[in-house]
UniProtKB/TrEMBL annotation:
Pathway: Amino-acid degradation; L-phenylalanine degradation; acetoacetate and fumarate from L-phenylalanine: step 3/6. NCBIfam families: 4HPPD. Belongs to the 4HPPD family. Residues 88-233, 257-418 form the VOC domain. This is 4-hydroxyphenylpyruvate dioxygenase. GO terms for molecular function: 4-hydroxyphenylpyruvate dioxygenase activity; metal ion binding. The keyword Iron applies. InterPro entries: 4OHPhenylPyrv_dOase, 4OHPhenylPyrv_dOase_C, 4OHPhenylPyrv_dOase_N, Glyas_Bleomycin-R_OHBP_Dase, VOC_core. Keywords: Iron, Metal-binding, Phenylalanine catabolism, Repeat, Tyrosine catabolism.
């Protein structure tokens, strides 16, 4: 396949790193995670890609891991460049036409239970909204009420029924807000706007009637009709302080949190620079069509991350000049513009989680998954990944249709759903990351010790095991096969 960026061979180089002691997993060394950012060749690659678009009329073993995946062509560095302190993903809000049925399907399909709501039963005649939770993952599903009825009791002061109806008309089921927890939402909003972010909602203080706890919420545009929602305050509930708590029986298939949120845009560079400018997020990894495409289609992708790498946001753009339309271009057409393509949901035991998700799929009301990879893929997997997985685990990988990849730091197990709605747009990824454990640090940079011992508390580094670069070609083939069944 022709390289999209031929000048890479002249400017890619590897840097030596000073790495902490490795973590041992089954006796094999896994290097702790470090941040991946582009080398200087990337500017040249961007220029080459732009030229291509203009010309086409379109705007072995873990010891050898350093030679694989995202390690090639990147310098390990975390510039700690955030312009405001970011802690983690707080919630995801989906906009839909019918919140009752949407939340029911996600509850069944992902193993989530309802924890809060705002609808006619709570005095809200503006919209219906239901909040689901599984450990640290919080999803809200919101649908507008009739515009012919007076709107009152809105739990979100800046909510617009007309915008919600337009969103549904243009995009169908989709993510409206990516909520992130910050130390000071009002200050973060001010800094973001001062650095070029487009305001979507000025800071508002919400109060929980039961506890008096407060919460500050503000929004800036992320891409398309998706906003980045900044959340802070003393409120300890799962979503927004203005919602009514709901008691329900806890249900969980083992999904712990949102790992990363992926956006699709027409021109990656412009969106990446916009987000970097207002947030200070750093470049974690870059992929080009030569890395992740097939002979038929491809994409370019840049991964952005916060200082602590707990908020990770890849940005994709389509490539052109291939026999088939890029899956990113299909998304942009069917979504009628940029939007959130998929959410990666993290579990600590993907085998247990996927058995539950498979049982809930299809006629049970849950989600369908992409077909399994080829027999050759699974036959070659032990040689590619090594002895991190047992023979029994390799058998379960094939049985459940999982994909496995590794980088120079850890191992990634992953699987993708088919599109969630009528349009071939938004979908989900279920992942488990193995390795990359490091000491938890407090705000002063000191190790946090366990209460019952003097041992440091260990946490997993963000992005451990990469993003499945080694699986992209196999995945793209399945997506291409799937899209051949659609009139897109």
């Amino acid at each position: 396949m022709q390289h999209l960026c031929p000048e890479r061979q002249y400017c890619t180089a590897f840097a030596q790193n000073s790495l902490p002691a490795p973590t041992l997993l089954r006796g094999v060394a896994l290097l702790p995670a470090h941040v991946i950012s582009r080398k200087s060749h990337a500017q040249g690659c961007r220029g080459h890609r732009s030229a291509v678009r203009a010309q086409q009329g379109q705007s072995g073993e873990l010891e050898a891991l350093s030679e694989l995946a995202e390690a090639q062509g990147f310098r390990r560095k975390n510039p700690l460049s955030d312009k405001f302190e970011v802690l983690r993903f707080h919630h995801i809000e989906w906009w839909c036409a019918d919140a009752t049925n949407a939340q029911t399907r996600f509850s069944c399909g992902l193993g989530m239970h309802m924890v809060a709501k705002s609808d006619l039963s709570t005095g809200n005649t503006t919209f219906a909204s239901f909040v689901l939770q599984s450990h640290d993952m919080v999803f809200a599903f919101t649908a507008p009420q009739s515009q012919k009825q007076p709107g009152k009791g809105s739990a979100i002061p800046w909510y617009s029924r007309s915008k919600a109806f337009q969103f549904n008309q243009h995009h169908g089921l989709g993510v409206r807000a990516v909520g992130i927890l910050v130390t000071d939402a009002a200050a973060a909003y001010k800094i973001a706007v001062q650095n070029g972010a487009v305001s979507a909602a000025e800071p508002v203080t919400l109060t929980d009637k039961a506890t008096g706890q407060e919460q500050t919420v503000a929004e800036v545009l992320l891409y398309g009709d998706v906003v980045l929602r900044l959340v802070s305050g003393s409120f300890q509930g799962p979503f927004l302080a203005s919602y009514t708590p709901v008691s329900s029986h806890p249900v969980s298939y083992g999904i712990r949190r949102v790992d990363h949120a992926v956006g699709n845009v027409p021109v990656m560079h412009d969106t990446v620079e916009y987000i970097k400018r207002f947030s200070g997020f750093h470049e974690f990894a870059e992929f080009t069509a030569e890395d992740v495409g097939t002979l038929d289609s491809g994409l370019n992708s840049m991964v952005l991350a916060s200082n602590n790498e707990m908020v990770i946001m890849p940005i994709n753009e389509p490539t052109f000049g291939t026999p088939r339309k890029s899956q990113i271009q299909t998304y942009l057409e069917q979504n009628e513009g940029p939007g959130l393509q998929h959410l990666a949901l993290k579990t600590d035991n993907i085998f247990t989680t996927m058995k539950a998700l498979r049982a809930a799929s299809g006629a049970a009301g849950g989600f369908d998954f992409m077909p399994a990879a080829s027999d050759d893929y699974y036959r070659q997997l032990p040689e590619k990944i090594g002895n991190v997985l047992t023979e029994e685990q390799y058998a379960m990988v094939k049985e459940l249709g999982l994909l496995v990849d590794k980088d120079d730091q850890g191992v990634l197990l992953q699987i993708f759903t088919q599109p969630l709605g009528d349009r071939p747009t938004v979908f989900l990824e279920i992942i488990q990351r193995v390795g990359c454990m490091r000491p938890l640090l407090d705000p002063r940079g000191e190790e946090v010790k366990a209460k019952d011992s003097n041992s440091p508390v260990l946490v997993q580094a963000g992005g451990c095991g990469g993003f499945g670069k080694g699986n992209f070609s196999e995945l793209f083939k399945k997506i291409e096969d799937y899209e051949r069944t659609l009139s897109v």
